[in-house]
């Protein structure tokens, strides 16, 4: 290796084993999926702009809600964080690349054909998956359209990609840290990814199990989820949410990691309570395995089970709150500047906490009998996943783009993107709390007139939020093609982690010799 | 930049405070249906519902107070410690006492919330000693209600969305109970404990009536229990709360809570109806019986548009029609589902299976069509399910 | 460099084993575990299999109302109803009721009735000594049957349970049964 640079042309991207290349591919892929999933959302919100069916029929609407969820979760958010992991983990621990570079390539290249397949189900006979991204049986087994088999295949493929990627991440972090970088000296982004990767390795196979059981019920005459044969639809929900709850922590922990890098940098102050941040993250991960049935409070659980899950779920608020306090205390008595990455990070802490509050309300089982499957839940998870994860991703991109490209993005455009996103996001999702409490169920294409005003607001907000992402894209592309070179390799004067010690843009190969870590 | 942000956040605070005060006044009376600009759930008309509401508001206010404290510190820091004002950042990065404190205090707050939550949950689960049992079955896409009668036949009926397809398709103005009205509401006596046995016929559904504080999943092959005791008469509306396919958004629930006397009267009427229909549903009718009954149905429901002798009028002729002399499936489709965009309504939801079998048989054999085939009520039932 | 590779291989190996183990857990441990827990803890309203009668005294101090509900699953056109919708029994006292079923179609069919009991915590105290739900019930076209259910409510039923509702959902398993038969025949 060494002296020669990357291969030329398309071959470079198809065969690369370089973590920076692969990271970039993941990021571009995830952005494309973000726009795709966002288009599905626009169709949903366009239909919900007014009462009545104007744009799509209910069958297609159900496909849109399903695909929006699947694409955003598995195509946008997860690959984006994997992209960040690929780019940044080796740089942050002083390693030359990921532990398993060729497997890294495969992990990525599984994704584009898989999502092509998933998107193509929309054009198949009977339409695409229409049973919600949570695909409960028997709607997703006995009553599913023929494309369900392709859906199952796609889920398996995505799972394999995630598992391989996570194994890679763990192997890298465990074995390739520069000498002197003990576990308790690693940046929080690396810690959160280490823990996330363990969660992934543990629960993606469970998802694979769930869809395999579905496949067997559909094609091989088994009755896992069919009462007629002695099975139980509720078993599906248990298996799915055993995956599903850790999954939402998989989505948010890397976001926590990003914020734990950005806030100290722009506060020019070390992260407050590093040790407890590590323990809190680990406790959240552990607790995430024992709360799954809070998604199933109305399914008819025995009371002892219901109480257990309620208590365990409420308990997760404690380490999560500790993290929020730590971030804020990092800012307290710091020396703060509000460049775009910091704006997104602060907004993420603020809005994710709002989502955490609605989460606490949802945890209260008796109250959840009124909230469950209403727009109150939709509001909650969009506050945590969009304002939580996607704002963190935006923050990360602005933060690290100068390192990746050696060029500074347009700060004014960045701030504009932030404020428009902030406004659009809140306009979209805050009113959803209200209609949910007023009785509007989720996953419906049409609604009673009394819900109309807030729905119209929500749709306008969605349009605003969606449009601002095009501004984001424009800023990124313009930076790459016409951006002003950064003033210094360090870019941000408050930055302290290893990636800022290499040139900006980062050379194709970095840390071929491990750095000294004191 | 900072001045802008400061102004903007003050701007945001105003409506937030307004909303918060509105929420707390409980300004919304107990209504059976959602209200315009409704911000909050209501206590409803049950004791349990009131307890749920109180729990909800308690947790909400705890969140508001914590939020104000926490975000207060955060936004204060953004302004007080910005670089222009605070050049030298502090260097502290841990404080064990503070960290222990902010672990213990939230934990204690949670304990405080857990106590009333546990009590209310135990109450919700206590389905014993009900005055009345109702079996609620979710179908794609309607509800079936069956009153369990220990002394005789159960009264049961389907409850379908009443809203016209034309309103949904925006060719007619929408009524005020758009999408939350049904042809046959569930009628319950006031001040009586009613136990619901919830199940499903096909896929998962969920029965939700906010004013009664009941939501329970309907699982095919299993029953779930729930109960309510309404303390006020009135009409209470809800919707299906579990994705169940195409018309998940179009299978509402309407509960009519009435005085005991009115309930008894209604029940007596229903029992008479039920006895009649049950006998007919699984019966195998003869051609003559079907044609005779079909003629009555035709004259009542079809003749106005299709002519008393099937000669047509506003609607096309039945005599010699391609549909009535073509495959039964196509014929059934038109009668059951109507023809969207035309005046031909969907009679599937309006006529019972016996009448549908009779009228289609009559159309296929009368007016000189002489197809020779006949349909039994069970064939109609199967056709509807097959859609 | 070589040790690093070896360590990486070790880590990778362990994680692969973990992921395979989790898949196996989901496929082969979770479903039976779910069923076992439901049965042992008597939750989920699933009543257990055949009960061997043990002589025990009858608790004459109280009665329990046992309700019977019958449901047809979609596409199951049989007539199916309890002949008695409700009985009052003493805990410990054997009782019997029958369910009426009629195959209203013009072809041979096989049914399976699936029981579900509420309140779920009563399920472990409801013992069926004989139940038509233990097996498939085949009926020729047009045939009807009165199918027996013999049961005992356990003496130890918690005193605060006064009503038990047992629901049967009848499913059409004609195809499933035919497949099983042909599998058995070919063996």
TrEMBL record, chain A:
The protein's enzyme class: translocase
GO molecular function: oxidoreductase activity
Membrane-spanning residues: 26-46, 66-87, 108-128, 148-176, 188-215, 235-259, 271-293, 299-322, 343-365, 377-401, 413-434, 454-474
InterPro entries listed in its UniProt record: Cyt_c_oxase-like_su1_dom, Cyt_c_oxase-like_su1_sf, Cyt_C_Oxase_1, Cyt_c_Oxase_su1_BS, Cyt_c_oxase_su1_dom, Cyt_c_oxidase_su1_bac
Compartmental location: Cell membrane; Membrane
Entry function: Cytochrome c oxidase is the component of the respiratory chain that catalyzes the reduction of oxygen to water. Subunits 1-3 form the functional core of the enzyme complex. CO I is the catalytic subunit of the enzyme. Electrons originating in cytochrome c are transferred via the copper A center of subunit 2 and heme A of subunit 1 to the bimetallic center formed by heme A3 and copper B.
Sequence similarity: Belongs to the heme-copper respiratory oxidase family.
Protein name: Cytochrome c oxidase subunit 1
Species of origin: Spongiibacter thalassae
Lineage, opening ranks: Bacteria, Pseudomonadati, Pseudomonadota, Gammaproteobacteria, Cellvibrionales
From TrEMBL, chain B:
The protein's required cofactors: Cu cation
Membrane topology category: Multi-pass membrane protein
Domain of life: Bacteria
EC category: translocase
Stored InterPro entries: CcO_II, CcO_II-like_C, Copper_CuA, Cupredoxin, Cyt_c-like_dom, Cyt_c-like_dom_sf, Cyt_c_oxidase_su2, Cyt_c_oxidase_su2_TM_dom
Subcellular location: Cell membrane; Membrane
Signal peptide: 1-29
Segments forming a coiled coil: none
Keyword DNA repair: no
Cofactor binding, per record: Binds a copper A center.
Domain Cytochrome oxidase subunit II copper A binding: 129-269
One GO molecular-function entry: oxidoreductase activity
TM annotation in the entry: 58-79, 100-117
Record key words, sorted: Copper, Electron transport, Heme, Iron, Membrane, Metal-binding, Oxidoreductase, Respiratory chain, Signal, Translocase, Transmembrane, Transmembrane helix, Transport
Residue ranges annotated for the Cytochrome c domain, each copy included: 289-367
Stated role: Subunits I and II form the functional core of the enzyme complex. Electrons originating in cytochrome c are transferred via heme a and Cu(A) to the binuclear center formed by heme a3 and Cu(B).
Annotated protein name in UniProt: Cytochrome c oxidase subunit 2
Biological source species: Spongiibacter thalassae
Encoding gene (name): coxB
TrEMBL record, chain C:
Superkingdom of source: Bacteria
Alphabetized UniProt keyword annotations: Copper, Membrane, Signal-anchor, Transmembrane, Transmembrane helix
InterPro entries: CtaG/Cox11_dom_sf, Cyt_c_oxidase_assmbl_CtaG
Pfam families to which the protein is assigned, alphabetical: CtaG_Cox11 (PF04442)
Primary localization: membrane
Membrane topology: Single-pass type II membrane protein
Compartments reported by the entry: Cell inner membrane
Keyword Hydrolase in record: no
Role: Exerts its effect at some terminal stage of cytochrome c oxidase synthesis, probably by being involved in the insertion of the copper B into subunit I.
Name of this chain's protein: Cytochrome c oxidase assembly protein CtaG
Organism: Spongiibacter thalassae
């Amino acid at each position: 290796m060494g002296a020669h640079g990357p291969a030329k042309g398309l071959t470079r991207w198809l065969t690369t084993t370089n973590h920076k290349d692969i990271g970039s591919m993941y990021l571009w892929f995830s952005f494309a999926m973000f726009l795709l999933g966002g288009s599905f959302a626009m169709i949903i919100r366009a239909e919900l702009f007014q009462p009545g069916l104007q744009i799509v029929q209910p069958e297609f609407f159900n496909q849109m809600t399903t695909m929006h969820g699947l694409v955003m979760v598995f195509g946008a958010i997860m690959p984006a964080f994997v992209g960040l992991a690929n780019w940044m983990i080796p740089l942050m621990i002083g390693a030359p690349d990921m532990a398993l570079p060729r497997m890294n390539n495969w992990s990525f290249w599984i994704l584009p054909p898989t999502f092509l397949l998933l998107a193509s189900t929309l054009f198949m006979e009977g339409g695409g998956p229409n049973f919600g991204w949570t695909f409960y049986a028997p709607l997703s087994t006995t009553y599913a359209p023929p494309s369900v088999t392709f859906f199952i295949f796609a889920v398996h493929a995505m799972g394999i990609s995630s598992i391989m990627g996570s194994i890679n991440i763990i192997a890298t972090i465990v074995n390739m840290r520069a000498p002197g970088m003990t576990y308790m000296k690693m940046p929080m982004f690396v810690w959160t990814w280490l823990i996330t990767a363990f969660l992934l390795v543990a629960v993606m196979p469970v998802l694979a199990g769930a869809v395999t059981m579905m496949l067997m019920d559909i094609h091989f005459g088994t009755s896992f989820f069919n009462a007629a044969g002695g099975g139980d639809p509720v078993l599906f929900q248990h298996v799915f949410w055993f995956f599903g709850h850790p999954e939402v922590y998989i989505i948010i922990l890397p976001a926590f990691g990003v914020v734990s890098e950005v806030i100290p940098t722009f506060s020019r102050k070390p992260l407050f309570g590093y040790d407890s941040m590590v323990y809190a993250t680990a406790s959240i991960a552990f607790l995430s395995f024992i709360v799954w049935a809070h998604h199933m409070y109305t399914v008819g659980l025995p009371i002892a089970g219901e109480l257990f899950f309620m208590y365990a779920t409420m308990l997760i608020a404690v380490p999560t709150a500790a993290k929020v306090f730590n971030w804020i205390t990092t800012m307290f008595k710091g020396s703060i500047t509000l460049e775009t990455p910091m704006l997104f990070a602060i907004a993420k802490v603020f809005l994710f906490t709002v989502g955490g509050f609605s989460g606490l309300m949802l945890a209260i089982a008796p109250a959840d009998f009124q909230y469950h499957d209403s727009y109150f839940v939709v509001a909650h998870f969009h506050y945590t996943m969009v304002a939580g994860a996607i704002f963190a991703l935006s923050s990360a991109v602005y933060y690290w783009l100068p390192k990746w490209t050696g060029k500074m993005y347009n700060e004014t455009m960045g701030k504009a993107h932030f404020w428009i996103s902030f406004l659009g996001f809140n306009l979209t999702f805050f009113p959803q709390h209200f209609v949910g409490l007023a009785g509007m169920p989720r996953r419906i294409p049409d609604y009673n007139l009394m819900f109309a005003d807030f729905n119209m607001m929500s749709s306008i907000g969605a349009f605003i939020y969606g449009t601002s992402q095009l501004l984001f894209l424009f800023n990124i592309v313009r930076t790459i093609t016409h951006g002003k070179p950064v003033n210094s390799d360090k870019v941000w004067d408050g930055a302290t982690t290893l990636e800022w010690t290499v040139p900006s843009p980062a050379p194709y190969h970095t840390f071929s010799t491990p750095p000294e870590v004191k | 930049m900072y001045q802008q942000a400061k102004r903007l956040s003050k701007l945001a605070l105003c409506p937030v405070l307004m909303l918060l005060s509105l929420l707390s006044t409980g300004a919304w009376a107990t209504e059976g249906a959602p209200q315009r600009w409704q911000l909050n759930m209501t206590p409803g008309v049950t004791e349990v519902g009131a307890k749920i509401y109180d729990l909800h508001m308690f947790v909400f206010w705890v969140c508001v107070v914590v939020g104000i404290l926490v975000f207060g510190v955060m936004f204060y820091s953004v302004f007080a410690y910005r670089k222009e004002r605070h050049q030298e950042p502090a260097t502290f990065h841990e404080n064990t006492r503070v960290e222990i404190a902010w672990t213990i205090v939230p934990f204690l707050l949670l304990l405080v919330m857990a106590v009333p939550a546990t009590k209310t949950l135990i109450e919700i689960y206590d389905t014993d000693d009900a005055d009345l049992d109702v079996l609620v079955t979710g179908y794609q896409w309607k509800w079936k209600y069956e009153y369990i009668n220990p002394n005789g036949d159960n009264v049961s009926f389907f409850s379908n969305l009443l809203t016209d397809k034309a309103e949904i398709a925006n060719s007619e103005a929408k009524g005020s109970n758009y999408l939350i009205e049904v042809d046959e509401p569930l009628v319950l006596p006031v001040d009586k404990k009613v136990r619901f046995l919830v199940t499903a016929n096909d896929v998962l559904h969920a029965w939700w009536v906010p004013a009664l504080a009941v939501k329970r999943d309907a699982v095919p092959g299993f029953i779930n229990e729930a109960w309510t005791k309404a303390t006020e008469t009135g009409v209470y509306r809800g919707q299906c709360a579990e994705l169940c396919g195409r018309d998940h958004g179009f299978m509402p629930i309407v509960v009519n809570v009435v005085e005991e006397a009115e309930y008894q009267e209604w029940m007596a009427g229903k029992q008479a109806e039920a006895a009649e229909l049950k006998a007919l549903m699984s019966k195998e009718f003869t051609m003559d019986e079907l044609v005779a009954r079909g003629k009555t149905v035709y004259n009542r429901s079809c003749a106005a548009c299709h002519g008393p002798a099937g000669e047509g009028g506003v609607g096309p002729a039945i005599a010699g029609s391609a549909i009535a002399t073509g495959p039964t499936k196509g014929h059934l489709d038109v009668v059951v589902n109507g023809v969207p965009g035309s005046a031909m309504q969907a009679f599937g939801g309006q006529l019972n299976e016996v009448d549908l079998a009779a009228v289609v048989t009559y159309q296929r054999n009368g007016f000189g069509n002489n197809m020779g085939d006949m349909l039994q009520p069970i064939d109609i039932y199967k056709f509807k399910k097959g859609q | 460099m070589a040790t690093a590779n070896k360590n990486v291989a070790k880590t990778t190996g362990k994680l692969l084993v973990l992921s395979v183990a989790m898949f196996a857990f989901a496929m082969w441990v979770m479903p039976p575990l779910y069923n076992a827990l439901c049965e042992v803890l008597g939750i989920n309203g699933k009543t257990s299999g055949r009960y061997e009668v043990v002589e025990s005294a009858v608790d004459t101090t109280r009665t329990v109302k046992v309700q019977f509900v019958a449901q047809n699953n979609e596409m199951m056109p049989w007539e199916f109803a309890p002949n008695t919708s409700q009985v009052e029994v003493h805990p410990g006292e054997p009782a019997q009721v029958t369910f009426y079923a009629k195959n209203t179609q013009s072809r041979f069919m096989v049914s399976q009735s699936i029981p579900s009991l509420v309140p779920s915590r009563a399920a472990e105290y409801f013992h069926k000594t004989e139940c038509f739900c233990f097996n498939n019930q085949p009926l020729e076209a047009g045939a009807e049957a009165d199918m027996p259910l013999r049961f005992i409510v356990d003496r130890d039923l918690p005193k605060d349970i006064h009503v038990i509702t047992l629901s049967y959902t009848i499913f059409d398993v004609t195809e499933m049964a035919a497949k099983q038969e042909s599998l058995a025949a070919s063996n």
